[in-house]
Amino acid sequence: MKNFEEKYGKIWRSQFESDPGTSDKFYLNVAYPYPSGAMHVGHGRTYIVPDVIGRFWRMKGCQVLYPMAFHVTGTPVIGISRRIAAGDEKTIRLYSDLYRVPQKTLDTFIEPMAIVHHFSQEYERVMSRCGLSIDWRRRFTTVDPTYSKFIEWQYLHLHDQNRVVRGAHPVKYCMGCDNPVGDHDLLEGEHAEIVKYVLVMFSWNEYIIPCATLRPETTYGVTNLWVNPDVMYRKVRVDGQKWILSPEATEKIRLQDHDVIVDGDISGADLVDQTAFNPLSGDVQILPAGFVDPDMATGIVMSVPAHAPFDYIALRDLQQQGKYLNITPVPLITVEGYGRCPAQDAVERAGISNQNDPAMEVLTQEVYNAEHSKGRMLPEYGGKPVKEARDEISELMLERYGSAVMFEFDNRNVICRCGTRVYVRILHDQWFLKYSDPEWKENVHSDLESVTLVPPEVRAEFSRTIDWLNDWACTRRIGLGTKVPWDKDWLVEPLSDSTMYMSYYTISHKIRNIEPGLLTPDVFDYIFLGQGDPQSVPREILDELRQEFLYWYPYDFRFSAKDLISNHLTFQLFHHDALFPPELRPQGMVIFGMGLLEGAKMSSSKGNVILLEDALDEFGADTVRMFLVGSAEPWQDFDWRNELVSSVRKQIERFWNTINDGIQSEDTYDIDAWVLSRMQKHIEMTTNALESFQTRQALQEAYFSIESDLKWYRRRLPEGIRSSAVINTIAPVWVRLLAPFIPYTCEELWTMVGSGEPVGFASWPQPDSSLVNTGLELSEELLSRTVEDIESIIRLIQIETESITLYVAPEWKWDIFRIIASASDRKKVMGEIMKNDEMKSRGKEATDAAKQITNQIHRFPPELVSSIAANKLDELAVFNEVRDFLQREFGVSVSVINAEESSHPKARAALPFKPAIVVQ
Fold first, then answer.
1. Are the C-beta atoms of 599 and 638 separated by less than 8 Å?
2. How confident is the model over 854-871, as pLDDT tens digits?
3. Which of 371, 472, 613, 626 is close enough to 375 for a disulfide, judged by CB 3.0 to 4.6 Å?
C-alpha cells in the first residue's frame, strides 16, 4: 500500500487546487498548526477528519476548498530557540530524541525562523503523506508581509469602531519575556483563568494582615486566621500601609499596581496565638496550620469553620488535641439539605477522619456550590440570598473597610514556553479588545443562533463564553507578528491575529503577487467590503480578488478543538460580527474531542505521543486514516492503541482482496439480488452520516456493514463458491463509498473498476430504488436470525444433533403483530386486539401471545418492526426454499411446519419472525 502513497502523492498535489467554478462550493477550514515540533497522531486526526468531509463533498459535485497555513506569531519559537541556545538539556533531548531533528539542523535552531521553516516543511510533507486534499497554493505564515497588511487593515477597523481600547487590566505576564502571554505561549497551565479575590483586612498591632477570599459574605463568621509557622513572612509597606505577606505574595502584589517596599521579616511562628481584628468578625486568634501554602494568594488564610469544610476539620483536629477549645463555629448561612453549620454537617455525614482525606476537595465544592446557589444569609446578617449578599458585602468592604482586590490564577502552575513562571500583572498602557461591550456581546449572541454547531450541545458553552468574556489583552511587546498600525511599540498577539484568516485564505495565493507596500487599507476595504476606489492596485486585479472572496465566503464549516471555544472560536465570532455583513459570517463549526494514547492524554512536552510520521511508516496512511476516523465520532475523545490500529490494516487488506477476487468471477446467483438491495441502504446511510459529520458512523456503514453482508452472502452461495459476478457490480460503488476514508487504496482499485477519472472526483453513489427488494431483505434477515438462534441452542444443549424442526407462527399471531406494531400506544393495544371475535375465542392464548409479541417488538429495531408489519412474509415458503441451505449448514435434516398443524408443545411458542425451534 505504501507504493500507492508514492504513486498518487505526487499526482494529487495539483489535483486539489480549487478555483471558483459554476458548481456549488463547500469551503472548510481547520485550526492552522503552530510548527514548533513534529506532528503526532492527535494532529493527524485534526486534519484527516475534515479531509474525509471535503472528499465526500467533492464527490458530491461541489467545488471544495481545503486550505492550510502556519501560525508562527508570538514567543513560542523564540523561547524554544533561547533554550536551545542556552544548552537546555530537556529541550535539546525533545528535539533530537523525540522529534529526531538532525544535529546539523538543530544547530540552526538558535534562530527562531529556522524552527518555523523546518517544521512547516515537515508538516506539509507529512500532511501530504496522509493524503490530505489541501490546496497548497494558498499556504502562508502569519508573519508574511502580505498577511501583516491584512492584520493591520483588520485592527484599524476595530480601532475606528472603538473595539480596541487602552486601559488597565490584569493579564498573564511572563517576567522572563517581560511580556503579556496568551494560552499559545504557555508550556503549562494553558487554560488557567484569572480569579478576582477580595482582600479582607485584619489589623494586628501596627500591621494589616490581608486574607484573600472569594466569599466576602462569610467574613462575619471568621473565628480565626491560619498561618504557617514554618514560613518566614515579610513586613512590607504597600502603598504606604504596613502589611504582612508571604514572600511569594509580596512579588504578586508588586505586579498588581501597588508600590511595595520590604521592611523586614517575621516568622509565622511569631504570629501564632496573636489576636487580629476586623470590624465584621471582631477579635480572632491566629492559629498554626502547616497546610497553609505561602504561594496561594497572600499566604495567610481566614477561617470560617461553619461554612468551609477544610477550616472546620482543621479546627477539630486542634481541639481534639485539647487546644483552642474556646473557638466555636459561627453559622451565617442556611441552606436546604444541611444543618445549622453546613461544613460541620457535611464533614460528619461523610465520615471524614482528617484534613488529608481526598474526599475533602469534592465535599468543599459541594458545600460552596449549595450555599451559593440555594443559600440565604441568616436574618441577623440581612437575610438575603448569598448571591446578592456576596456582591453587597464585597462593595461595602472595598468602600468602607479598606479592602482591596487581588488577582490570582485558579491554577498556580502557569509556565511560559521560555521556562519562566507566569504571574498576574496589571498593565496600564496595554491595548485590549473590548469583548466586555454589552452591545457587541448581544450581536454575537444573535449571530450564534444562525451557526450550525456539531455537536449541538456545545452551543451552551459558546453562549457562556460570550457572556463571561472580558476585555482581552491583544498586544505584546516582543515576539513575532504584526505591529499595531497606530502604535508601533506593540505587536498583535497570537490569538488576536488568528480571528479572520479564514477569509484571507480565499485570496492568499493571488495577493502574494502584489507588492506589500501597495496593500493599503482601502485595498482590503474593496476586496472584503466592496467599498472605496483604491488606486495602488489595478481594478481588474482587485475585481478578481473580490470575486474569489465572494465565491468562497462565508466558510461552510470550521473544524477545531473544544478547548478553543473559550478563546479563538468565540473571538472569531466577535471579529466577523464587527467587520463583515451578516451574509458573510460563519455558517458552521465542528468541535473535536481530545486525543489519548493508551488511555492517557497526549502531550508532546511529556513525550506521551506517537509521532504521525512513525505511524505512517509502520501502518500506512490509509490504515492511520481509517483508525483515526473510525475510533470515535469527531466530537468524542479517541484513544490510539497500536493493537487496534494493526487490526485496521487487516480490514483494508480484506477489502482489497474482496474486490480483486470478485473481478475474476463471472457466475451469478439468486442471492445476488439481496446484496444489491442491501447496498442501496448502505449508500443512503453513509451519505446521511457524512452529511451530519458522523464520520465513524459513516465508516461503519461503508465498510463494516457491507463486509458483514458479504460474509453472510458467501455463506449463502453454493458450497465451494466464494465469490460471484455481483462483486463486479458492487465494486465501483463500494470503492467510491470508501474513497474519502482510504483514498490511496481506493484510487488504485478505481483503476481496475472505475471509469477513468480519479476516484476523488468520481460521482458519489446514489441509491437505485429499482434494486431494492424489501421482501428478499426481510427473508434473509429472518433466515440469519433463525440460524443464530439454532446455533445458540446447539451450543447450549451440547448433544449430537440429529434433526431440526422449525415451527412457524400462524396467521392470527401475525394479525396481532401488525396491530401492536401500528398502535400509537402499545400499553392500551390489548383492548383493540380483543375486539376481534377470533381473538376473543382464543382467550388466554391470545393475550399471552400479545404479551410475547409486545416484548419481541420492543427488542427489535424500529425499522425492522415497520418492515415486518408492512410486508406479508410467508415464513413457510421462505424456510422451505432455503431448507437445503439449512441442512448443509447444520448437517442434519430440517423440517418446516405450521405451528397450528402440530401438537408438539414447543410449537405454541412460535412468533412472527421468530419460529419455534426443536433440536433433536
1. no
2. 889 889 999 999 999 988
3. 371
